[in-house]
């Protein structure tokens, strides 16, 4: 199987795909990956942003509350659609210590949890666009990446420049606090 990402275009609306993109099939060996971000893509973080809008920021409380995030219906539906033809995985800026709560949350939404779940290592505060692209390229060495879905415009831009097919998750209103946490503070 080719190590190159499939596609290379931008998919802006759910269910749309460029004609040049090969439609993956679960019979592929191994099946292609559809990778989803969590915060702002599958989960609604707005209820916990108050922890990091003040000084000092309370990152422990912010991440502790992640298990209570409401689901974002459009993102959940899209992940379930892709699960019919790909293995679904997750590339998130959440720190590794949130893994158990994150897996519980994914299961509670009826999302697959058998695929990769990449989370930030302790003390990895690189911008999301750097950390996530590095992880995506590593995954693409061994697997076909059918699509990547993320809400962070800077992350989407570097994914697109690297040749990956991207769905820009624009179903949750952009938030300056979350953007700063992702790109300036390397926290989510």
Automatic annotation (TrEMBL):
SUPFAM superfamilies: HAD-like. Residues 1-10 have a biased composition (Gly residues). Residues 1-23 are annotated as: Disordered. Pfam families: HAD_PNKP. Coiled coil: none annotated. Residues 32-168 form the Polynucleotide kinase PNKP phosphatase domain. This is Polynucleotide kinase PNKP phosphatase domain-containing protein. It comes from Streptomyces smaragdinus. The lineage of its organism: Bacteria, Bacillati, Actinomycetota, Actinomycetes, Kitasatosporales.
